[in-house]
Amino acid sequence: MKKTRFFFLILLAVFLIPAIVPAPAEAQKARLTDMVISNTRDDLLLFVTVEGAFTEQMKQAVLNGIPTSFSFIVRLEKINAFVLPNSLVAEKKVTHTIKYESLKKQFVIRRSWEENRTLTTDSFEKARQWMSEIKSLRIAALDKLQEGKKYRIRAKARLDTVELPFYLNYIFFFVSLWDFETNWHSLEFGY
Question: Which of 80, 131, 170, 177 has the fewest CB atoms found within 10 Å of its own CB?
Fold first, then answer.
């Protein structure tokens, strides 16, 4: 009798949980927008935003203290003529991490490209904004670029895998549904 009940509960969970937990398509709406390239006297800079990355489930998990990280991958390529493959000039991977400290009721954000400087706020909206944007990321020194040549900058964002303690994997098994990776977003320019 106990085995039958246990088996029934397992079957119920297998069929009901997917209906209750939203499909990963919700996270697939994440995309890069507002990509802008600029420069200083010496460096090429990138500005970009990821939209649609925070689902309600991710927000709830962050509020429950689960750290979450986004990675941004950026590639600068020189566009070569005809049959030659493009040349990679520079590649960067930067990471943003958010953690909610429930005792202080504060969100703590670290961004690797800012030398992991800590940003703190009590507003989820402000924390979401800091997690979703890159401003003035140094991609390459201008002396690496050749005058009169065409270049392409490509970027994408992805949610890094959340690593939970073993005992929490059973409770938060739906975390894998958060997985997202945006498509490559690119911008061409001449130098």
Answer: 170
Does residue 44 fall inside a structural domain?
yes
pTM: 0.73
Contacts of 184 (CB under 8 A, 6+ apart): 154, 155, 156
Distance of alpha carbon 21 from alpha carbon 24, whole angstroms = 9
The answer to whether residue 13 sits within a structural domain is no
Q: Which contacts of 49-54 are long-range, i.e. CB under 8 A and separated by 24 or more positions?
A: 49/132, 49/133, 49/134, 50/132, 50/133, 50/157, 50/182, 51/132, 52/27, 53/27, 53/131, 53/132, 53/157, 53/159, 53/180, 54/128, 54/131, 54/132
For the chain, residues with pLDDT lower than 70 are 1-28, 161-179
Residue 100 domain-assigned (yes or no): yes
Contact (CB, 8 A) for 190 and 150: yes
Task: Give the domain range for residue 77.
Answer: 24-190
Looking at residue 31, its amino acid is R
